[in-house]
Write a structure and sequence with these properties.
about 20% helix; about 575 residues
Length: about 575
Amino acid sequence: MGDTKHHTTASSPTSPPSRDSGDQPIRASRIHLRYDSDSHNVVAQLTPDPHAPSLSVELLRRQLADEGYGEYFAPDEGLQSVVQKANRAESGEYVIAERRDAHFDWTISPDKTAVYLTVAPAHGGTAPTRDGLRVALLEQQVPEACILWAALDEVTAAGQCQDLCVAQAQPAEPGRDTYFEPLVDTGLELQLQEDEQGRVDLRELHEFVVVEQGTELMRRHPATAGKPGLNVAGEPLIAKPGEDVGFGKDLAGTQVSPQDSNLLIAAIKGHPVLMSQGMRVDPTLKVHNVDLSTGNIDFDGSLEVTGDVTSGFVVRASGDIVVRGMVEKAEIHARKNLTVAGGVIGEELGRDEHNQLRLRTQLRAGGNLSAKFVNLAELAAGGDIHVREYVMQSHLQSQGAILVGQGGGKGSLIGGRASAAERLVANILGSDANVYTEVRIGTANPKRRLMESLRQAVALCDHNCQKLEAALAAMGPPDAHGPKAEKRAKIHNTFKAQRQRRQRLQGLIQRLVARRQASQTAQVDVRRQLHANVNITIDGVSHTYTHDMGPRCLVRRGAELVSKS
């Protein structure tokens, strides 16, 4: 399928125009075409003829087409040369066209990921076909799996192409990492269905999840090796295997099935808890109410109270605690999550030395803590605090976020103080009655003690300056040569030194404030109304709002609180 060079040759020397029997000059030659099967050339034979018409390139091309050579390779230069000779009544034989098959030029990329094809079109010869291209690729050891059939069809349809990708490596498919499929629901789905009066029908709540001994908990799906690939040279591409890990070690209350090493089952009856590489089962205690019939409860496991926790009782559990009803003036401590489907009602026990309310009801959770509403109670959580309706005159402390009003609740936080490491979200902060409400978000300033000592030193300078000014005023008008002149000069110098010291201390305070770094998530998000008399501190920067404001998301920027756009 190589290129054939075309050339023009004459079978006899050129002769001048001749004359016929009547001595009339012959002005043109007639052209006869023949095909040379050995060279695949079309040869034009020129014979002077007094009746031959004048010739042009267009007429010669038409003659080629009429005699079946129209698709052959016939450059204009060669045709023009023959036309000129014919119009000068010259004689001889000349090659004017060539039958050419399509010519293929294959290129394999250096990384053996692709094969590119350039096809010079056929001229009366064999055109590219899908099967012919396939055979040619296979002859070059290109695997059939790498052939791009759509590209072959494109070449076949067009008859030519330029650097077209016709084969591509099959990439290796990496293996899948080990994954763990839970076979039981470990969550507590509390769907609160309220009537028009806001009452909750507890019969609509989903049951606390408890599994029996032998229950299938989780299936381990081992890692896979992956699928090897193939380059266009037929060489394999190695696949990266997935990461293979086994069940975790701290999976109390479970065991691997004796019949299936990839199946985790419950070894005891209890509450399943999802872990990163398995599941554990906590033993669960279920009681109707916490009252005189139960006494105080201290349980190693999870606890469900289907009714209320009544006044005066203490409840502790090393796992989760779920109270379906109300909590009244009690103490509840859950090492993990604490959920109160109803509300929390407490009472105050007077005020402490800082004039802060002392509250009798205390709820603490190592994980998340949630309730419908909270009144006069102290809440602390290692995770987030969720309150659906309102929080009134309570103390909230969260290592995560405080979210008031999620799930369509009223979302009011009124009075008391709320402290969170990350953020606070509430629909309404404060009240129309301007009840003082304190909010602290973010991390404490590590140089807080230094800042406090500097501020105390500034206050002492101010106090000393006031006393020195009073002493100078009591000495009367200045007298440069009087008996009090020396004493006045000492007092004045001391006053000046105190003022300079105050300026230096104030400069240190300003630099410390400027160096404070705001956290990425510390913010207060008020969705509807921010009332007056609310003090907000974010990452150590405080501001008390003196008038009502609309929705805003507050963050710390430098030494100020600003509304994030």
